[in-house]
Amino acid sequence: MAQKQYIVTGMSCEHCVASIKEEVSEVPGVREVEVDLAAKAVTVRGTDLDDERLRAAIVEAGYRVADPLAA
Q1: In a 3-state reduction of DSSP, which class is residue 49?
Q2: What is d(CA 28, CA 10) in angstroms, rounded to the nearest whole number?
């Protein structure tokens, strides 16, 4: 299973976490989404993960994506 991790700015509460999980979960290939609110990190696991679509989903949820972390 592939993994991608992003630093996401603007998250401040559990509503933010739920919004990101909902949007990112809809991207094809995504099997699991973990959000670490304190670290401002979003970890996505799945198959054939499309970086552009994942970033777009986070932006669609209303947040800004920094560079992906080494996975």
Answers
A1: coil
A2: 25
The predicted pLDDT at position 27 comes to: 98
DSSP H helical ranges for 8-68: 14-25, 51-60
Work out the mean pLDDT of the chain and round it to a whole number: 93
Count CB neighbours of 1 within 10 A. Answer: 9
The SS3 call for residue 55 is helix
* Residue 52: C-alpha distances to residues 10, 15, 25, 26, 38 (Å): 19, 23, 14, 14, 24
Identify the pLDDT of residue 69.
55
Residue 45 has pLDDT above 90, yes or no: yes
CB 69 within 8 A of CB 49: no
